[in-house]
Amino acid sequence: MRPRTLVLFTACMFICVVALPAQELSQAQPPQTEAEKRALLERVIANQKKNDEAQNTSERLERLETRKGPPGTPPEVKISRAVPAGTGVDRIPVGPDGKPVDPAAYHAELEKLERSLVWASEDGRAQHDAYEKIAKKQKDRAELIEATRTAFLYSFVAREPRGDRTLTKYRMEPNPAYKATSRSTAIFAKVRGFVWIDEAAAQLARVEVEVTDDISFGGFLAKVYKGSHLMQERYEMLPGIWLASYSQYDFDGRRLFVSFAVHERTFYSQYRRIGPPKEALFAIRAELGKPGSGNADP
User: Under 8 Å CB-to-CB from 181, ≥6 apart: which residues?
Assistant: First the structure.
């Protein structure tokens, strides 16, 4: 179990926090009314669901930097082409420019990806079981996002420029009246943070998170310590779709009696829609130059 795959990371993708000083504009505009704020949040949540769906059918270039030693230790860098393959994401090693370093090895990886897409396109018991597990994870994530309506109190902080756009910054703090409906939503009482929303697009543009109390998983099996952080930047990567451009995780904790530390930075670029498995299979076979790539069915 990799620490960053814990439920906490799913929850924190939308509800983020960090006790950083606000960089307010010199002339902050008046805050919205409660009705306007609720209406904006509804639109942001609806768009976030669309973004999640689009991410499941979009490939991208990922640069993952992992630091395992003390501060100052050079990070381990992995650059890959990340391609959704129906029941998971296939990551093919590439160079900094996104092009193959070893053409033969790259071709072999594409062949493996083709086989994965063929399997994901078939209609069998194993495929049904795999997709049911994915559907449950997506349902759990959707419920977490829905819960943010009432799990937090949102207070206007400032309007800040980002490039040629203006973001509205809100402080998010746990709502003392909120009653958690699951172990996952119980996490919300132990995080606080800030979100930046692009009001014109009704999209989540930035999140920052701080864990304010130790969070346990599976009883004594795992724990994420107080003081852990997460942040993410999001931009319009496809028409009407806002996806991550940068994520940073700084988490400390333990699994059983073994301590762990996750210090990762990921840069995302070159998003491109590749579609669900049958459509992606068509694209990969065409890339491989295989006859019959005009028919996406395996």
Answer: 143, 147
**Phi and psi, residue 34, nearest 5°:** -60, -40
The strand ranges marked E within the chain are 58-66, 76-84, 89-93, 152-162, 165-174, 191-198, 203-211, 215-217, 222-224, 229-238, 241-255, 258-273
Q: How far apart are CA 208 and CA 17, in angstroms?
A: 4
Using CA atoms, how far apart are residues 247 and 268, in angstroms rounded to an integer?
8
pLDDT in tens, 110-148: 999 999 999 999 999 999 999 999 888 888 888 888 888
Query: How many CB atoms within 10 Å of residue 119?
Result: 17
pLDDT tens-digit series, residues 202-220: 999 999 989 999 888 766 6
Crossing angle of helices 125-151 and 103-121, rounded to 10°:
90
What is the pairing mode between strands 165-174 and 152-162? antiparallel
pLDDT tens digit sequence for 223-274: 888 889 999 999 999 999 999 999 998 988 888 778 888 899 999 999 999 9
CA distance 54 to 275: 9
> How far, rounded to the nearest angstrom, does the alpha carbon of residue 166 sit from its chain's CA centroid?
22
Nearest to 144 by CA among 298, 10, 281, 6: 10
Averaged pLDDT for residues 73-95: 93
- Locate 36 and state its tokens: 């306007």
- Written as six digits, the tokens of 272 are 């491109």
Q: Compute CA distances 116 → 121, 131, 212, whole Å.
A: 9, 14, 41
3-state helix, strand, coil in the chain (%, to 5): 30, 35, 30
Give 263's contacts (C-beta < 8 A, 6+ positions apart): 66, 67, 68, 249, 250, 251
For CA atoms 122, 126, 132, 134, the dihedral sign is: negative
- Helices 125-151 + 34-55 axis angle, to 10: 160
